[in-house]
Structures are given as structure tokens and as C-alpha cells.
Amino acid sequence: MSAEQRAANLGITFQEIKPGYLNLCIRSGNLLMTSGHTSDLKGVLGKDLTVEQGYEAAKDCAVKILNTVHQEYGTLDGLRVIKLLGCVYSAGDFTDQHLVINGASDLLHQIFGKEGDGYHARSALGFAALPTGAAVEIEAIFEIKEAEASTP
Prior knowledge:
The chain is an alpha+beta fold and 152 residues long. It contains 3 helices and 6 strands; from the N terminus they run αβββαβαββ. The protein has helices spanning 3-9, 51-73, 97-117, and strands at 25-28, 31-34, 37-38, 79-89, 121-127, 136-144. Helix 3 (97-117) links the parallel strand 4 and strand 5. The model has no long low-confidence stretch (mean pLDDT 95).
């Protein structure tokens, strides 16, 4: 089953995104690099929010990233997840950022395969604040695999 089919089976749909102030995804050679995508959930992990809520917020970020990548490239097929940078709005003593960002990693593993194209490098960091008070912000880098590099 393809990545596109797995995403559809998970109920992920893609919508057109109107251009904004910044480019949400840019292609450079065989790489697709996204801007940071923030969660709809607002609040501070370890103060207002639980790890479970943060996990869902990170998953929300990943869905938004997939939508942006899909719009730029036209499909999720033929892509490999290279790197995630996960930023978590954290209380000073909160140390479970990695468990929060698992929400995004787990979704990408489901779609691209944990052992294959979804097996990625990742950083999960705590921040004193994030734009608009978002609980989580994530950016990603995808590789367009060689066989598909000449398409869209």
C-alpha cells in the first residue's frame, strides 16, 4: 500500500492552502523543507496541558505538514521523511518533550513505515514560548526519492 493510500485510510484529507506571508514548503533539489506548523491547541506542557494532549497536538502539526507537502509535491508517494524539529511550549521543569513529539513521529511511521521511508532523525526541544501560544510547532524535511525525482 502506498503512503497516499495509508494516509487516506487514516482519514487524512488534503485541502488547498492559499499563499500567505511565508512559503510553507519549498523544494530545493530533491528536498522538500517545511516552515514550522503550529498546533491548534494552545497552552504550556507540564502546566496547562498533559503529555497526551501534547501528543495529539504534535499529531495535528504532522497532518498540517502532510497537507503542505502534498500541495507542493502533489502526492505523498515517493517521499522519505528525513528530519523533524519539534518545539514544545514547556514549563521550566517539563522534560517529556520527546514523548509529545512522538505524536508526529508515530503518524509518519504509520504512513511511510517505521522501518522504511518514515524512519527519520528528530529533535524535540522545550521552549519558553511559541508563536500564538501554540502548544507545539514542528518543521520537517522530506526527500524526493531518486526514482521519482524528475516528477512534479
